Amino acid sequence: MTYIEIGKAINTHGLKGELKIESWSDFDEIRYTPGNKIYIGRNDEMQAFTVKSYRPHKGYALVAFEELPDINAAERFKGCVLYVDAADRHALDEGEYYFDELIGLMVEDEDGRHIGEVIAVEETNGAQDNLRVAREGNSDVLIPNIPEFVKKVDTEVKVITIHVVPGLL
Fold it and tell me: Residue of 83, 126, 152, 157 with fewest CB within 10 Å of its CB?
């Protein structure tokens, strides 16, 4: 099984066993649908939990699990990272990609010239995401992940083709 990190339990909330989660997912409503399986890593071990309820609260996800009936049961998972099984991810619309699908792809311009490799996808508050591209012999560059710059993503060939404008690189 391949696990993908989706957040971190930073605290408990209330007495009914909810975990306050710093979410790293854009799909909280889908991830935390009641009945879904979430895995919590603790002491080098993965434990499966079934989502009982989810609600957003002050920028965090409050999630209750069937297996954690109260605060005492939930307390031991503070500070633990939450995961989903990669096979359980929902399909995205055409032209949308999970961040981990983009990391490691080679980047080239429209003429096929090698630019570098995507080493991270960085989120911005309110603006587009940026692809951080490591370039050999040069500093990293941020490429806005929008159609004006990212012209083609080919996950099979593992190449992203971008449109280069003056000042981008």
Answer: 126
